[in-house]
Amino acid sequence: MRIEPTDATLGATITGIHLNRLSEAEVDTIRTAVLDHAVLIFPTQRLTDDEQIEFARQFGELSIESLPFTNEDGDRLRSADDPLMKLFQGNEGWHTDSSFQPVSAKVSMLTARKVPSSGGQTEWADMRAAYEALDAETRARIEDLTAFHSLYHSQSQVGGDDETTAQGLATLHGQPKSRSPLGPGHRRENATANAAPLRPLVKIHPETSRPALFIGRHAYGIPGLDPRASKDFLDELVEFAAQPPRIYSHDWSVGDLVMWDNRAVLHRARPWPLDEARSMHHTRVNGERTSETALNYT
Ligand SMILES: [Fe+2]
Fold first, then answer.
1. Using 50, 70 and 90 to split pLDDT, how confident is the model at 86?
2. Alpha carbon of 271 to ligand 1 centroid (Å)
3. Strands (DSSP E) found in the chain
4. Dist. CA 136 → ligand 1 center (Å)
5. What is the Å distance from ligand 1's center to 27 Cα?
């Protein structure tokens, strides 16, 4: 197995192994590598859904077994105003997976099944390095701050009303190849006022103890700040955090698998020409309840 770090503060490419037949020692090496590098790139593995699920189970309990992120609807391609495409448009904003659920995500993975001729990259930003780069004053300011996290809120910021968001979610999770139930954070009533999960802005990683900014598009409404000041401050933090050398951008080839640690990075999708098919299959490992449960949930 070869592990080659990228030029950024996060990410490493791993070659020389097959993810569908790993020894226990190789799995251990991958577990350590994802803590060190936060993003691991495995080129052209070409896993089936079952193999991808089997691989992911070695990192914890799954909240999503397999979920197609695709603009294909049978033989046709969805248009930009389709409620599902509105969700994908939202995913073009920096975020961490499931922060709007009572228990946030640990590890996520994507495999590329169909890749457009241009665009459609996925990018990750290192929130550990971003925290380290903050000045002392900002670090002191955010130490005790928290924010609510809601998918309905983040979708409203890209023009998605609640009904459109609910329809998009029903379509996404109801696809023929979906093996992913809707979670409590997908319900509208869990996304309002104080019912939305509340999380600290600084996350201490449960395994490495490294602090990281825990922000992104789902975060809003810092208690103690008025909504406008909260939005401006959170936008400013993301703007500062997601800058080189803290960014890795992946140009997908069919069969690539990338896995990442949601407790340490933000990620986003890049747009692509919507008259071309793009199909990615997603698997998500749930966070441990002891460390990833929101402050206002038990
Ligand atoms: Fe995501």
1. very high
2. 14
3. 2-5, 12-15, 39-42, 62-70, 72-73, 76-77, 105-114, 122-126, 146-149, 198-200, 202-204, 211-213, 219-220, 247-250, 257-261, 265-269, 279-286
4. 30
5. 24
